[in-house]
Amino acid sequence: MLNFTLNMPTRIHFGQGEVNKTGDIVASYAKKVLLVTGRSSTKKTGSLDKVTASLDKAGVSYVLFDRIEPNPRATTIDEAGRIAREENCELILALGGGSAMDAAKAIATVALSGRPIHEYIRGSKAGKWKELLPIKEALPIITIPTLAATGSEANSGAVITNWETKEKSGITGPALFPKAAILDPELTYTVPANYTADGAADMFTHLYEGYMTGDEHANVQDELTEGLMRNVLIYTKKALDEPENYEARSHLLWTSTLALIGIANAGRGGAFPVHAMEHTLSAHYDISHGRGLAIITPAYLEQIVLKDRPHRLARLARNVFRVTEDNDILAAKAGINALVDWYKEIGVYDTLQNVGIKREDLRLMADETIRVGGNGTDTLVGTHNITADEVLSIFEASYE
Amino acid sequence: MLNFTLNMPTRIHFGQGEVNKTGDIVASYAKKVLLVTGRSSTKKTGSLDKVTASLDKAGVSYVLFDRIEPNPRATTIDEAGRIAREENCELILALGGGSAMDAAKAIATVALSGRPIHEYIRGSKAGKWKELLPIKEALPIITIPTLAATGSEANSGAVITNWETKEKSGITGPALFPKAAILDPELTYTVPANYTADGAADMFTHLYEGYMTGDEHANVQDELTEGLMRNVLIYTKKALDEPENYEARSHLLWTSTLALIGIANAGRGGAFPVHAMEHTLSAHYDISHGRGLAIITPAYLEQIVLKDRPHRLARLARNVFRVTEDNDILAAKAGINALVDWYKEIGVYDTLQNVGIKREDLRLMADETIRVGGNGTDTLVGTHNITADEVLSIFEASYE
């Protein structure tokens, strides 16, 4: 196990009806908030009404900003930040999926400083990488996820898209930990099947990425990660079959948080190369992040992990997919097949072509993956240092 | 899964050599600290020298209070609190096992208020139970465990013994969360075999208690708990065979923290009846808490859990001890046998008689268990409400 520092300060309020405590929870931090959400789904499902009713009851006033798009954009962040400043909002309250929550973290940053979010992701290292400037302070943030997926609800990271430059960049900093996360599984009952499945693919990727690439002598983390992966398998199917099954929705929502709260990767130091590849795809094409991850994962596992660490893939196959094969190479291959079968079963198995990506853009996007995700080097960190040509090969294999 | 609130604010610094960062970590909170430890072991092993050298280097001054006894006593707490006040210490730094860390939490309480710890555990409900007064504030606390066992390093609980009344009482409150926990597995290399094993028995009990008694529809918690239990089994044996095996010591230490940081029991609402029974034993006889737990566990499982929830015991048997029996009752019995075998293998299998307890005290201690642990009722919460006669029966079965 590697040395690590772990910080999990977000207070979690989990369960049926917890959304109705929003006003009381927010009131201990702020009297006026910017309520950040997407254009339509929280209105259609009634989630927004529950939140505003609770705020009203607790005497918390709010300004609604309901224009967060999927893969939230820097220009939208800056606009919301300006409104939060003008309206003297004291806290950013996010209601929605990863987009609303990530946007809230960025808005909390620009609302306090009055500077565009671009300034926190500008800079240059080796002429390739946009170096992150430290985010030392932000308005307090509270999250209310309506989808089990990104885990953004209780960590300090966010991903923002600069649509002009086609770049998705991560921001992070202790100031971005939400003060509280309100996790009410009933809010996820109305999530459509495709989003439920895309979210599950995202969670599963959060779990396997560090497991594959990090320190291999971290059995306690391996065991926790495998347990969470098994939960994703079991309860995604159950939630797709019965969208209002509380057991399924509660397990998926809690797993999404645990998958990216830090305990799975602490002491392992794993990398996230598949995320880096997908971010280029969705920065250029605005596809669902979870769907993009599912599309390129089989080729990544076959081309990279099967060669470098078949024994890790074999362990995952045996402990998560219950593969009984003794030979590591065969078990690893069976594991990839089992994952593909699961992707098919939940409906996320797809191709880059099918989601509208043009073949002639693959080279550019492979190069962009290294430029944006390579931290100023010519490669992505993984089980080995992955080159642009290898990324292209994964994209090609995922194309049709 | 039940509704829950979860708070894990302690910042964790884990790994080889982390103890040498103590001074820098403490310096961000305080210039002068009360350094709380036991009488001898941290001096013999050199842990204390490492801590004081780091404090000196960072320019943090300290007052040493090296008189914490096993099962720390209220009178000692009050004395240490008085010294901390007189010396204007700004933080309580604990170095040691559960006794030092629990004592530090209580000292931080009395040091700030100037009131004896007894006032925080006084009061009366139904004439039986010492009602806890809320602990709203305390000096900041930092913990450095030298033993993998209690999990006190990163939670808000502590157990204090009133030796005059023979009562062990828990205290808790958000102010008691340590600001930081410095977990350096190398500090545990010198832990003697019997303490290593007692600590493992304590961890294992933290994990099985909630698992047996709490909500049964919390599979994500079950999976995490089983994974942690498997780690305890594997790495206790390894640490006993090779006391300076970093892998073994690091996994045990991290598991001790994870076992009681909240994630295993959140959403499950489990009870801790075996802990309540053991607290009476060690309040009267000053035996090791972990040893006491191991002694009474087999009878508890046979007399209570085997009747009420054989299927839970069967699941533990299958998933933790790899029992392959299909029938739940038989699997449950095999699980108890496997646990007893493990207790024997690591050297914690024992009897109440053998640790010096007098048979004629069993009735009194069974009654005391209910009086102190029953929260003002006639029973302990468990898989059913456990009576004093049932506690006596468990003690009798554990006697010789």
From TrEMBL, chains A, B:
Asked if the Swiss-Prot or TrEMBL record annotates the protein with the keyword Oxidoreductase, the reply is yes
* Domain Alcohol dehydrogenase iron-type/glycerol dehydrogenase GldA stretches: 9-185
Keywords (A to Z) from UniProt: Oxidoreductase
Q: Does the keyword Oxidoreductase apply?
A: yes
Q: Which domain of life is it from?
A: Bacteria
Enumerate the Pfam families for this protein.
ADH_Fe_C, Fe-ADH
The UniProt record lists the Fe-containing alcohol dehydrogenase-like C-terminal domain at 196-399
The protein's GO terms of the molecular function aspect are: alcohol dehydrogenase (NADP+) activity; butanol dehydrogenase (NAD+) activity; metal ion binding; methylglyoxal reductase (NADPH) (acetol producing) activity
* Regions crossing the membrane: none
InterPro entries documented for this protein = ADH_Fe/GldA (IPR001670), ADH_Fe_C (IPR056798), ADH_Fe_CS (IPR018211), BDH-like (IPR044731)
Give Gene Ontology CC terms.
cytosol
Q: What is this protein called?
A: NADH-dependent alcohol dehydrogenase
